[in-house]
Design brief:
The complex is a heterodimer of chains A (237) and B (185).
Chain A (H helix, E strand, L loop, with lengths): L10 H7 L4 E6 L7 E2 L2 E2 L9 E4 H9 L3 E4 L6 H12 L39 H11 L7 H22 L16 H21 L1 H15 L18
Antiparallel strand pairs in A: 1-4, 1-5, 2-3
Helix pairs in contact in A: 3-5, 4-5
Chain B lengths: L6 H7 L2 E6 L24 E5 H9 L11 E3 L7 H9 L6 H4 L3 H11 L3 H23 L1 H6 L3 H6 L3 H26 L1
Helix pairs in contact in B: 1-5, 5-6, 6-9
Classes of the chains: A mainly alpha (237), B mainly alpha (185).
């Protein structure tokens, strides 16, 4: 049997998927609306801002046909505010909250997470990837590029260290509260956390099984103390 | 029972545990199991048998439900009281690899056969503490390579822990690679 692929998305896959998110684009040339598989995009009439999927926005940017507006949360003020929230001692257990999600649609695009109408005080799911892509390829659209880059890096470090602290409460049966953690951050720790929880589960298995047997015995009160299912090798005649 | 095709399960089951025979088995005197010595296997001979064989013998009832099994199984030394005490004292300083290459697998199989709550609890806390240490080391690979005594911890990891370390390291590495790849294009 071929070695199985690791379960879940790898970081490069997450990075690829983030390009489905919409960003606000200020076109420099007119372009008709495109009939994409995910749905039609609006026509581009400069200078009106239009939402487009990130991959298309990056392509147009490279061809100098458009500029990308950084979403409100990707500014120095917003990132500083979020960083203060994260580093505050009182929120050592929490991550900064995610934006209010729109009512669930059937598929991507995932709402306005990265457009000009995004919520300015919350990091959307793909904040790390979108932030990185925008500062790399749309550098001139930012007011203070170095500050934004530094803030993104600081945010990433703070959140990763919080995640690692959360490892201590991993348990065989329990879940970990991870509200607000981004896609790339999860992808980074997925292999490790999955391995640890699996190992704990296996070590706990015999305890789990004996606990379950005891519970089923207690439920079937009339059978007395011995269970017929105890020893599979014996035939009860 | 562990999965049939998994190399991990096969290697785990190949680890040895002491088994005491309760009857004579003259035909096995020259087998590799007996270190190829000619000494006959009489009742009360204790040999180190691989887990899959030892378990079969310990569970078998050759003459029906009431008879004694062919051999009794003891706890291997890797899970003995000395190791357990060392783990309770300081889990990260014990060289698990020396005890058994697939230490946690061995512990899991033993827990299946013997219901030892205390050993189960010790193994769980050990696993968690060492996992935290592994996460630490996976982050700071540069300092780990230079540091001398951290090499002891890394060489003392058993196979499951090595896979954990690789998973943690791969995750960080993959993210870094994605950042570099997108910066170029």
């Amino acid at each position: 049997m071929a070695p199985p692929l690791p379960p879940g998305l790898t970081p490069s896959e997450v990075g690829f998927l983030c390009e489905m998110e919409h960003v606000t684009v200020i076109p420099r040339q007119t372009l008709d609306g495109l009939e994409l598989l995910g749905g039609p995009t609006g026509a581009l009439k400069p200078p009106f801002p239009t939402p487009l999927p990130l991959w298309l926005a990056l392509l147009l940017k490279k061809q100098r046909r458009a500029n990308i507006t950084p979403p409100p949360w990707l500014s120095v003020e917003a990132l500083t505010q979020i960083l203060d929230f994260e580093t505050d001692e009182r929120t050592a257990e929490l991550f900064s909250p995610s934006p209010n999600l729109p009512p669930a649609t059937t598929s991507a695009p995932l709402g306005d997470a990265a457009t000009a109408r995004a919520q300015a005080d919350a990091l959307p799911y793909h904040w790390l990837e979108i932030g990185h892509l925008l500062i790399t390829h749309a550098a001139d659209d930012f007011d203070d590029l170095d500050a934004v880059r530094k803030l993104l890096r600081d945010l990433r470090e703070v959140r990763m260290s919080k995640l690692r602290k959360g490892f201590e409460v991993l348990d065989a049966g329990g879940g970990v509260k991870m509200n607000g953690v981004g896609g790339m951050e999860i992808a980074e720790v997925r292999g490790f956390v999955g391995g640890v929880v699996d190992g704990l589960r296996r070590l706990n298995r015999s305890r789990e099984e004996s606990r379950k047997e005891r519970e089923t015995e207690e439920r079937e009160n009339g059978l007395g103390s011995s269970s017929y299912r105890d020893d599979e090798d014996e035939d009860m005649l | 029972m562990a999965s049939y095709y998994s190399p991990t399960a096969i290697l785990t089951d190949a680890q040895k545990a002491p088994a005491t025979f309760s009857l004579a088995v003259p035909a096995l005197s020259h087998s590799p199991l007996n270190n190829n010595s000619g000494t006959p296997i009489t009742p009360a001979t204790t040999l180190d048998l691989p887990l899959w064989l030892a378990e079969m013998l310990a569970v078998s009832r050759p003459s029906g439900p009431a008879s004694a099994p062919l051999a009794t199984l003891d706890m291997p030394s890797a899970l003995g009281p000395k190791v357990m005490n060392a783990l309770t004292a300081d889990a990260t300083s014990v060289e698990l690899r020396q005890q058994a290459q697939w230490f946690y697998g061995l512990g899991e199989r033993m827990l299946e056969l013997f219901e030892d709550e205390e050993m189960g609890a010790v193994l769980l806390t050990t696993f968690k503490q060492r996992a935290l240490e592994i996460a630490d080391k996976a982050q700071n690979t540069r300092t780990a390579q230079q540091g001398g005594d951290s090499g002891d911890f890394m060489s003392g990891l058993d196979e499951t822990e090595r896979q954990l370390f690789r998973a943690a390291h791969d995750g960080t590495h993959a993210v870094k690679r994605w950042f570099e790849a997108t910066s170029r294009g």
